[in-house]
Structures are given as structure tokens and as C-alpha cells.
Amino acid sequence: MNPRPPKREDLLGIWRLVSVETPTRAGGIEHPFGRAPTGTIVYLANGSMAVHIDGSDEAAGRLRAYAGSWRIEGDRVVHEVEASVEPELRGVRLERRAELEGDRLVYRTVEAQGSGHPVVIWRRA
After folding, report:
1. Distance of CA 39 to CAs 2, 4, 15, 20, 42, Å?
2. CA-CA to 5 of 20 to 30 Å: which in 38, 119, 122, 124?
3. Lowest mean pLDDT: which of 28-32, 69-73, 115-119?
4. How many domains does one find in the chain?
């Protein structure tokens, strides 16, 4: 199945986290939330969303959780963060390049964070 940008109706519902990986400039892979993180993202038809990612193994205790509104702009999903456990995310616009392949949703961070661009993979619940 060929990946494609998702449509609004494709995202509605609940997604479970598969992985969070950040390619390094040296060709390696970092796991900022550990090798087996857990998480959920929920998209509602009214434009509301909520996400949480909980770290595992060496990243146990690391948590990203926020809620706000969402929309699609071309090949990007935009989250407007209203509430977050991380104060620096409140009021921030987060953009992700998005590809849908079957029951998998792949997000690539648009803005650089760390040594590379994190890739977050979700699977429909």
C-alpha cells in the first residue's frame, strides 16, 4: 500500500503509539522515549485532540501530554496546543508532515528538535 497524506476523516478516532525515533546525523537512531514507549492520540470531529506519550526503559518517567485543537493543512497535521504538562508547549503550534499507510499514521516533525527530525508512528486502535 502506498503512503498518502491523510484526509480529515482518516484521522478521526483513537490511535496507539508504535514508536518514536530520531535519526542522528551519524546515521544512528535515538529513542527519546525509550525503545517501548506507550501512548494514545485522539482526534475528535469537533476539532479537539489530546495526546500522551509515556517513556519506557531508560526514559521511564518521561511524559509528553497535551490537548488542544487540530486541522489538516496539505500534507501536514497541525496541533494548536492549549494545555500541556510541559509549560513551554502551551500556546504553541506543532506541525507534522503526515503519511497514512493502511492502519499506520507516520508523523515527521517539521521543525528540527535535537540532532534530527523525530518520526512518530501510530496505529489505529
Report:
1. 25, 23, 8, 10, 10
2. 38
3. 115-119
4. 1
Half-sphere exposure of 1 (CA within 13 A, CB side): 10
* pLDDT tens by residue, 41-77: 999 999 999 999 999 998 999 999 999 999 999 999 9
* DSSP label of 8: H
In a domain, 23, yes or no: yes
Higher pLDDT, 59 or 111: 59
Domain assignment present for 3: no
Q: Please, are residues 53 and 39 in contact by the beta-carbon 8 Å criterion?
A: yes
Residue 76 lies in a domain: yes
Judge whether 1 lies within some domain: no
What is d(CA 75, CA 98) in angstroms, rounded to the nearest whole number? 6
